[in-house]
Amino acid sequence: MKKKTISFELSVYETLGALNEQDRDLMHMAIEARKDAYAPYSNFMVGAAVLLANGKTVIGSNQENASYPSGLCAERVAVFQAGAKYPGVTIKSIAITAMSKTHLVEKPAAPCGNCRQAISEYEFKQKSPIELLLMAEKGEIIKCQSLADILPLGFNSSYL
Ligand code: THU
Question: What is the pTM of this model?
Fold first, then answer.
């Protein structure tokens, strides 16, 4: 029997001002997108902004439904929109910001398991890492270098 450790490095920025201009602009787009979240059931508003290799950006926000599972997270709205509008164009990074209408969200929200799997599909296909920038309503920003970092032992098409 062998034991293995899987670890990864992330960066923590104290404020938006500490980000480089490109990351800061992307997070500002996610903040704007968050305002258009349709979240009457959870009151949890999430915005996402995707930066593509061609310089284009695409936004998304969570869209809920009275039949709860029919809703979709902000990240998937954004990456699916990117895939539909700019098929085959590499995704460079995704900024995600979340806030609640009922309480202060104190730490950056990371993508849910379904979103990790959905984003990993694109990362695996394009063979280059997708950076993640995570923020709550305000406060520190976490930057991950690759989606794969937060989905260790992930499943992808190489198994099929
Ligand atoms: N949500 C997202 O949009 N992204 C996540 O990564 C976590 C959860 C949404 C789904 C639902 O509309 C609300 O937040 C509460 O779960």
Answer: 0.97
